[in-house]
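A reminder before we start the practical. When you read a complex entry, don't treat the lines as separate problems. The point of joint prediction is that each chain is placed relative to the others, so the output describes one connected object in space. Small molecules and nucleic acid strands, if listed, are placed in the same frame. In the example below there are two entries. Take a minute to note the order of the lines before looking further.
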Amino acid sequence: AQTVTQSQPEMSVQEAETVTLSCTYDTSESNYYLFWYKQPPSRQMILVIRQEAYKQQNATENRFSVNFQKAAKSFSLKISDSQLGDTAMYFCAFHTNAGKSTFGDGTTLTVKP
Amino acid sequence: SQTIHQWPATLVQPVGSPLSLECTVEGTSNPNLYWYRQAAGRGLQLLFYSVGIGQISSEVPQNLSASRPQDRQFILSSKKLLLSDSGFYLCAWHGASGTYEQYFGPGTRLTVT
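Here is the predicted structure of the whole assembly.
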């Protein structure tokens, strides 16, 4: 069985600064995908960034980047130049080729002006 | 482009009453479909997923069931609701091949009284 752990229930950051959200996972699978999703107060889930486990290069999407450490089973999200619109709950998720997905409990991020 | 619909948006039902939540996807074929439940301030709990018509995998034993009568239609049902069934229900899909990022519907807020 897969597990995903987000150890930071809440975090805050000043506008324009950088923040890193942590995520660790456990699996016996060799092929899988990792994702960060954002859920703003509207509760609409939005994909932030994805990482294929077979790729060593860390994914980057504009101000969002990940630090993927496969051996350590760690997948952290870095948000640079934080904006007020980044305030949301962030979920780390793990997905297997067989179709099953597992989500962490989330980190609530508040960006302060 | 692809879109995903869920209805109703909100629902208040008494204990013991039946439930039917519907999810439909437009603009794609043979999607993988998912039902999740989210308790307040918590992560997503995978309830069911489907890789094709009539193919349903259940992740959590409970009084809920799912069906996929058509390729792009996914239904969540219950014969008798419990208080513990209250929550925010999300439907999601991803393509049959690719990188497995999921696209979520707007959700249904269910309150069992």
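Discuss with your neighbour: Residues 89 and 108 of chain A are 4 Å apart (CA to CA). What might explain this?
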